[in-house]
Amino acid sequence: MRNWTAGRRQAIRAMAGFVAGSPLFGWQQDPFRDHSRVPKLEELLTGLDFEPVAYAKLPRWAYDYTAYGEGSEFTLRRNRQAFDWVRLVPGAAGSGQEPQTATTILGTPAAFPILVSPTAAHMQLHPDGEPATYQGATAASQTPMIVSNVASVPFEKIAPAAKGPLWFQLYPRQDVESNRELLDRVQAAGARAVVVTVDQQASVYERALHDRNLEAASLRRLTGGTRGAPRNPYRVPEGRLWYEWKLFDQLRPMIKVPMVAKGILTPEDALLCLEHGVDAIYVSNHGGRSLDYGPSSLEVLPEIVDAVRGRVPVLFDSGVRRGSDVLKALALGASAVCLGRIPRWGLAAYGVPGVQKILEIVQTEFKQAMAATGRSTLASIDRSLVRTDFP
Amino acid sequence: MRRREALFLAAAGPTIARSQQLAGEPPGRIPPAAEIINASEMEAIARRRLDSAAYTAIADTGADRAAFDRITLRPRLMVSATNLDLGANLFGQPLFAPILAGPAGGQNRFHPEGELAMARGASKAKAVLIVSERSSVPLEKIAAESPGFWYQVFPEAGTTRAKIDLAVKAGCKAVCLTAGAGGTLHWAAIEGMRKDLAVPLLLKGVMSPDDARAAADHGLQGIVVSSYRGVPVPGMASPIETLPAIAEAAGSRLAVLIDGGFRRGSDVLKAIALGARAVIVTRPALWGLAAYGAAGVQQVLELLQSELARDMAMCGKPNLAAIDRATVRLHRR
Ligand SMILES: Cc1cc2nc3c(=O)[nH]c(=O)nc-3n(C[C@H](O)[C@H](O)[C@H](O)COP(=O)(O)O)c2cc1C
């Protein structure tokens, strides 16, 4: 099984993809947008293979926006390292049965315990934006998609594009009542759950500042980095400093569908979520984009699962790239796993078919990993499947 | 190398130089100080400005990074931070934030205005400056720019107390005595320096709980956990690693400060969580000085303050008193 550390074959293929997309062979062309050869979709074998193609196709600022992690990117790197600290223990030779992967997550049926994480502004990646992501996700066995509050396209315009299940992700506004109208609209348009993202209270997108000569101005607006002068003397963006636990109590009556808290990384906060009417805990460090030097999501998953004691489902994301990663997170107690950058790479590289293909790769890998470890049902996936060595 | 870096490296290759116009800073451009986004970027600018001898004197060693990498922060959510307050108090002196600019001799090596620009920048950032006895600018001039300054001396038979008295006369608020290189501490001599001193005396260079206890026993008011002159010894523990045991030994008898490799607000937060009252940054301030003079010093200190404030907010600790041991987790590797 290959992992994040590049093997020779992987490096060659990644390099080939990159070179094919580089301006080396196309001096007359726009070096980032046009190029003479993009590998065919069939040539890509793992989710990781999509990143260089996305890189070659995107303007630098758009690639950076997807790739970046907060601060020194310690947590971004740790998200991947963490999967190396969890080893799958080969089980008794499989029963030979086809692994059963279908499940229901907060009432939403899913062919795999895999969802699309909410991520911002898909039009940066592809002119068709979120409707394309949604079509790709639906084509990949109706993978549920969580639509970001800062999508390029409004929820109601995405919803008609395909048939798979949709959830909505909310960045709450301080005037709590002012969230009601939006929540009403997305629920009317079919959102089957609402994910309230509560991390990133004071994150800034350093790279947007760094790439000040690039077309990052719109991004800066998007991430709130320079929105108005902060009132505090420490130049901390004010937008989200007001978050308080009572927010969930206030939002609860506005949300008729399950309410999920996203960004939880400690057992203490998981328990507080339960006290405030949350229906599921979403363990996430925002793909390493919230607190630099925070933990990887994976290393804190077990202690959160232990604290929650099965009372509500625990969703998980940050750093998942392979089907085996999904299996590891499930073994440590996640009910389902979400993918942030993976579908973004698929969309940027190949549009709808790219999203479909990259999700199918992860799904297939997941099934194969189940088979290889002798687990034919989701219920049989437990901690005995892994040996952990967190530092 | 990281995957992303590899991609960038490839992109920066000479074969595709044409695309460079699309990527980041044009080579050689020195952006305005206010556009610098973190300490390491400040170092990069300092490096462009200095000749190699001067740069080598303040180049980052990176030696303490691994120790900081073995400490993670524990984010706690949904704690309002609208009243963020980084204010601290040391020996009755109010601090805007628990970050001081550290002592370094001969700063005219890095900027023509030397310590004067350093003092101006630090005071613009509302940070206390610790002035080295080996300053290239007379103390009175520095005092005028940075009134709340501290003074740092090396113990030398006979002369030290006289220097301290001059500094006190110039208005210094505290004195750091830098423990000699490897030599044993002469507690009797230290007591002599402390005697009838109107300002607190701190011992800088403490790396063991025993020395911390001795410092308290001999009546010092504070210590700075620090490897000698910030030069890390390979194989020796970093200051941040020795901090918990030293803070425990010090108890409430000493104010414990620390320096050594602090480059990010998160580093400062970790030190506070492990028992430090404040942190001293020296190289980053010098990078700011070399890069932009006073404006660079101000920028780099304000960046650290801002990072600390943001990290505190994200750990649910809107003020220093709220920061506790549970804010961090220590790792074996
Ligand atoms: C480019 C990008 C934009 C994102 N935008 C949002 C967002 O709008 N709302 C949100 O809750 N999370 C957002 N996230 C975080 C993702 O939901 C998810 O937590 C993260 O991407 C998972 O890590 P992974 O990318 O390693 O899979 C974003 C992540 C990325 C990479």
Helices of chain B, by number, come to 13
CATH superfamily of the largest domain in chain B: Aldolase class I
Q: What does the average pLDDT of chain B come to?
A: 90
Q: What portion of residues of chain A is helical?
A: 25-40%
Secondary-structure blueprint of this entry?
The complex is a heterodimer of chains A (391) and B (333).
Chain A: H1 8-21, H2 50-57, H3 60-67, H4 74-84, E1 86-88, E2 103-105, E3 108-110, E4 114-116, H5 129-139, E5 145-147, H6 155-158, E6 166-170, H7 180-188, E7 194-197, H8 206-210, H9 217-223, H10 246-251, E8 259-264, H11 267-275, E9 280-283, H12 297-308, E10 314-316, H13 323-331, E11 336-339, H14 341-372, E12 386-388
Parallel strand pairs in A: 4-11, 5-6, 6-7, 7-8, 8-9, 9-10, 10-11
Antiparallel strand pairs in A: 1-12, 2-3
Helix pairs in contact in A: 1-2, 2-14, 5-14, 11-12, 13-14
Chain B: H1 3-12, H2 39-49, H3 52-58, H4 65-69, E1 71-73, E2 88-90, E3 93-95, E4 99-101, H5 114-124, E5 130-132, H6 139-145, E6 150-153, H7 160-170, E7 175-178, H8 187-194, E8 201-206, H9 209-217, E9 222-225, H10 239-250, E10 255-259, H11 265-273, E11 278-281, H12 283-292, H13 294-314, E12 328-330
Parallel strand pairs in B: 4-11, 5-6, 6-7, 7-8, 8-9, 9-10, 10-11
Antiparallel strand pairs in B: 1-12, 2-3
Helix pairs in contact in B: 2-12, 5-6, 5-13, 9-10, 11-13, 12-13
Bound molecules: flavin mononucleotide.
